[in-house]
Amino acid sequence: MHYYTFIVPAVANRLAQVRLGFKKSKLVSFSLVICLVVIELMLLLNATTIQRVGAVEATGGIGVYWDSNCTKAVLSIDWETLKPGSVKNVSVYIRNEANETVALSMKTENWDPSSAYTYLTLSWNYMGQPIGIGEVTKVTLTLFISKQVSGITNFRFDIIIEAQTYVIKTIPGDADGDGYVYIKDLAILGKAWRTKIGDPNYDARADFNGDGVIGLLDLAILGKNWRKRSP
Ligand SMILES: [Ca+2]
Ligand SMILES: [Ca+2]
């Protein structure tokens, strides 16, 4: 059952989805601390299974593991006992098993009960950096539990981690398009130095100001962004 619809862009080049399911706990510890006029709700979440759903290319997609050697796949996540106002971190290792550089996105869905979504917030420390082929990235998932949590004795929700083709954002001066302005870009500029459109050595990649001539103006742009990376 979908209680909430999350706006998730349909990614045509989606490589893989990993769905981490969190089932209802069997046991919930609920304590009333009457003397303090505080109702403290303890949430206990049991481990569940991991399911692969959605589009998975034959070349593979991403794998989620407990260890940096990627030998133990994440079959379940146990958030253990959660106290109102607390934060719970769980670290996993995500390996790019696709045949191209990817970036990750994450979403949650299927909150049950739906009100749990109001009180629980899942985030991660992944900042959108590219993950090369075979590269392993450690990612920490953080679950925040609101102090105002009430009326929830157990809950579940799904996490979907999705890999997409990484699109490099270039910056002026980045002739080779790797997102970094450095020696290789200067070399491309140097080979095309003092050429114009139509010349055999003219290279549009080094014509940073797009005026059809490669010269000092382009070198100035490269120099301005020297050793800078695209955001
Ligand atoms: Ca570059
Ligand atoms: Ca130019």
Could you write a compact summary of the structure shown?
The chain is mostly beta strands and 231 residues long. The chain has three helices and twelve strands, in the order βββββββββαβββαα. The protein has two domains: 16-165, Sandwich (Immunoglobulin-like), CATH 2.60.40; 170-231, Dockerin domain (Type 1 dockerin domain, Orthogonal Bundle).
Overview of the molecule:
Helix content is 10%, strand content 31%. The protein is mainly β and 231 residues long. Strands 5-1-12-9 form a 4-stranded antiparallel beta sheet, with no helix packed on it. The protein has a 4-stranded antiparallel beta sheet with strand order 6-8-11-10. A two-stranded antiparallel sheet has the order 2-3. A hairpin with a 4-residue loop joins strand 2 (30-33) and strand 3. The longest helix is centred in the C-terminal third of the chain and has 9 residues, at 183-191. Bound molecules: calcium ion (CA) (2 copies).
Give the SSE layout:
Blueprint: E1 16-21, E2 30-33, E3 38-41, E4 43-45, E5 50-51, E6 62-65, E7 80-82, E8 87-96, E9 102-112, H1 116-119, E10 120-124, E11 136-145, E12 156-165, H2 183-191, H3 216-224
Residues 207, 209, 211, 213-214, 217-218 line the site of one calcium ion.
